[in-house]
Amino acid sequence: MTSPPREPRGAGEDVLDVGPAPDVPHPVLGWRTWRLGRRAQRRTDLIAPLAGLPWPSRQAMVAFCASPTHAPPGDRCGCGLYAVADPGRLDWGPSDHEVLGVVALWGQVVEGTRGWRASHGYPRFVVTGPAIAEEQRAALARRYGVPVHRSEVPPRVLAAQLGADRARADALRRGSDAEVATALAAGMPEWRRRWSAGQAAAETACRPRRRGWRRR
Ligand SMILES: [Zn+2]
User: Compositional bias (Basic and acidic residues) spans (predicted)?
Assistant: First the structure.
């Protein structure tokens, strides 16, 4: 059970095929983050932010646990590959090289209050922000064989906005590649507008008070 679950792709799509059809018809689909490597040879690595481990391309990521008493995901352990149902509840680090994505989980899967932990996983799609160059995004898509979309707002901003719009977030999480591409393109102007408005409000709020200053 190591083949990433993939749906058949149509001809002419700008992504490469990952491999044989999965033997798991219904993987759990959840939101998660990865970090992209900064060094030249790591720039197409999807790295687990907490563990610091790169996810392999074209084959399943298999969870590891140092405990000899169980295989991941352990019932009373934190091991396993994580994903959440609500993208608004993702944890973000300080790096502008963090990306948002939906991951397919399968094998052994346990459900918690925020989402899931699983023994096997593979990215379904990735969303990079303005900090990631087009060339790097394309290389990432080629390497992992999954769609890598560009967001005009930082991924953490997008995740927060999707968290406030769960119907749309769930449609994206469960959508086909074509549906995801269409929904992201359709929503982007609105997300960008809201982000700009939020930034303008923050700047207004942070403007130093003029009182006490006198013009000469
Ligand atoms: Zn464990």
Answer: 1-12
Q: Are 108 and 71 in contact (CB under 8 A)?
A: yes
Q: Any idea which residue has 């059970």 for tokens?
A: 1
pLDDT tens-digit map of 28-47: 999 999 999 888 889 999 99
pLDDT of 13 > 60? The answer is no
Per-residue pLDDT of 61-115, as tens digits, reads 999 999 999 999 999 999 999 999 999 999 998 888 999 999 999 999 999 999 9
Q: Quick check: is 181 in a domain?
A: yes
In a domain, 105, yes or no: yes
What is the pLDDT averaged over residues 133-158?
Answer: 95
Residue 60 CA, ligand 1 centroid: distance in Å: 18
Q: Determine, yes or no, domain membership for 126.
A: yes
Q: How many whole angstroms from 185 Cα to the centroid of ligand 1?
A: 39
Place of tokens 């392999």: 56
Domain total of the chain: 1
**Cβ–Cβ < 8 Å for 18, 8:** no
In a domain, 189, yes or no: yes
Q: What is the CA(48)–ligand 1 centre distance, in A?
A: 16
Domain limits for position 97:
28-205
64 C-alpha to center of ligand 1: Å? 7
Token pair, residue 49, equals 């932010």
